[in-house]
Amino acid sequence: MASSPVSPAARAGLLVFQPLKRRRCAECHAGPLPLVALEAGEPRCLDCADLGHLVYLPRGDTALTRRAREGSGLWAVVVRFHRRRARYERQGVLVEEAALARAEERCLADAEARARRRSRDAARRAVEDVRFTEAFAAEIRRLFPGCPPDRARAIAAHASVRGSGRVGRSAAGRALSEGAVTAAVTAAVRHTATPYDRLLMSGVPRGEARRRIAAAVETTLRGWRAPRGRPASGA
């Protein structure tokens, strides 16, 4: 005998099981069943339980599951028994196909909106980064008027890379403090205008390597502190 229709309200909170053993429907004898609904303790296939029109949505996407369930007049939770943990665990839900399609459209719209927002945020950060790099370069030129403009821009760009952890992104660097700007310029001179990196690669300890190139660094900085075209004092 076919089972009588059951209202959606009565179906709220339905459970459907992924059986661990081979089960057959007590009504139509189909089997083995991948999903089983229990009625009066007897296994039923989804068709005989009036759930055959529902589609399975595995767990994993919380927003999609919530929206599909909310939009479905009839739905069921799919569970499976975990022997080691001795408990039933949720595997997904059965929902109406139209509800799932609507939920997917809403989630896709949200994803597109998030992508647009990320794009806007990235563009805004890019503009902010350009402005900050320009301000950093201007401060380098103010403190070191003899520094070639292209070198000042290169030093500023390197020191102010977002997320780099370099001095330009420190609190002092963002405030364009003299100490932070000077530290960025000094580091640039050390790495690009002296044999400092080669000394490190050859095994010279960092402190000793810095001591060996300190005079060369100071000579370059002293020259850059003087206005362009005017010799540095003591030169």
From TrEMBL:
Organism name: Streptomyces atriruber
Residue span(s) of domain DUF2293: 139-225
The organism's place on the tree of life at top rank: Bacteria
Name of protein: DUF2293 domain-containing protein
InterPro entries: DUF2293
